[in-house]
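Need residues for this backbone.
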C-alpha cells in the first residue's frame, strides 16, 4: 500500500511526455514583451509580467485597458494579447522539450493574435464562451466582446464550432462572427462592421501591424483594403454581421468543475470537464 501511495504521489508531481518526465511546475512559455500592465495569476502566484517572465499551466493572463503582451510558448507558438483581455492556459501535454501533444487556451475577452508553432496542428485548441476553434498551421486574429467572437484568418485554416454547427476559414483575409447561436458564413474582412465599430476597430492588428513587434507581423496588412477610418464608427452593417441576430446574448460561463482540465498524459491538475476551460473574466 505504501508503495502504491508513493507511486501515485510521484505521478501527480510530473507531466508525462514522450521522453523525459517534466515537472508540473515547468514553464510552458515566456513573456517576449509587456507594455503598461499585464498580469498573471495561478499556481505561481499573482504577479505583474515583464519581459522574460515565465508562464505556467493554469495561469490566468489579463491586461488592463492599455496593456499589451506578447508571449512565446515552448514550441515556438506566439500569442499577442491586446488591452482588456483575459485568458487561461488550461491544458497542456508536452510531447518533447520543443513540442506539445496538447496546448489549449480558454479566452474570455479581448483581442488576440495567434501564430502556430512546431507542434502538430491537432495539438492546438482555443475555447471561447461562444465556441471552440481547431487550428491547422495557422495565423489568425480573434476579438471577443459584446457577446460575439470575430475571427480573421491570416494564413492556414481554422475551424470554429458551436455544438454541431461549424465553419471553416480557408482563405486569407476572410472572417466569421458568432454569437453563441449562429455562426456566419466566411466573408472578406474589409466588409466587417457593426453599428458601433468599423472592421479596423474589430481587427486592430490588421489595421495597424505596427502595434506588434516584427516577429508578429505575418501578413494580412492588405486585408482591410482602403479602410482607414479607425476612429470613425460606421452605420452600415455587413451581410455577415446582419446574419448574426441581436440582442447580444450573455456569454456562457467558462469554469472548471469536477474533472481534470489538464487531461491527457499531462495530468496538469486543473479541475474541469474536457470541454470546459478556465477563461472567466476576472
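Answer:
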Amino acid at each position: 500500500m505504501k508503495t502504491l501511495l508513493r507511486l501515485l504521489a510521484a505521478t501527480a508531481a510530473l507531466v508525462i511526455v514522450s521522453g523525459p518526465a517534466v515537472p508540473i511546475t515547468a514553464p510552458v512559455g515566456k513573456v517576449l514583451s509587456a507594455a503598461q500592465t499585464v498580469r498573471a495569476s495561478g499556481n505561481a502566484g499573482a504577479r505583474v509580467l515583464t519581459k522574460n517572465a515565465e508562464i505556467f499551466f493554469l495561469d490566468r493572463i489579463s491586461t488592463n485597458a492599455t496593456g499589451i503582451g506578447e508571449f512565446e510558448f515552448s514550441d515556438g507558438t506566439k500569442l499577442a494579447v491586446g488591452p482588456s483581455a483575459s485568458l487561461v492556459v488550461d491544458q497542456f501535454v508536452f510531447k518533447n522539450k520543443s513540442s506539445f501533444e496538447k496546448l489549449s487556451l480558454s479566452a474570455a475577452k479581448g483581442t488576440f493574435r495567434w501564430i502556430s508553432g512546431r507542434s502538430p496542428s491537432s495539438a492546438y485548441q482555443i475555447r471561447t464562451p461562444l465556441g471552440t476553434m481547431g487550428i491547422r498551421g495557422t495565423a489568425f486574429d480573434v476579438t471577443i466582446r459584446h457577446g460575439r467572437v470575430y475571427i480573421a484568418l491570416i494564413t492556414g485554416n481554422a475551424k470554429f464550432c458551436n455544438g454541431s454547427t461549424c465553419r471553416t476559414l480557408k482563405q486569407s483575409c476572410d472572417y466569421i462572427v458568432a454569437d453563441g447561436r449562429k455562426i456566419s458564413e466566411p466573408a472578406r474582412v474589409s466588409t466587417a462592421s457593426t453599428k458601433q465599430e468599423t472592421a479596423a476597430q474589430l481587427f486592430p492588428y490588421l489595421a495597424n501591424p505596427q502595434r506588434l513587434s516584427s516577429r508578429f507581423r505575418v501578413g494580412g496588412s492588405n486585408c482591410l483594403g482602403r479602410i482607414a477610418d479607425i476612429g470613425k464608427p460606421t452605420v452600415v452593417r455587413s451581410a455577415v454581421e446582419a446574419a448574426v441576430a441581436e440582442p447580444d446574448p450573455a456569454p456562457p460561463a467558462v469554469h472548471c468543475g469536477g474533472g481534470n482540465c489538464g487531461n491527457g498524459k499531462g495530468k496538469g491538475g486543473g479541475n474541469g470537464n474536457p470541454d470546459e476551460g478556465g477563461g472567466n473574466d476576472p
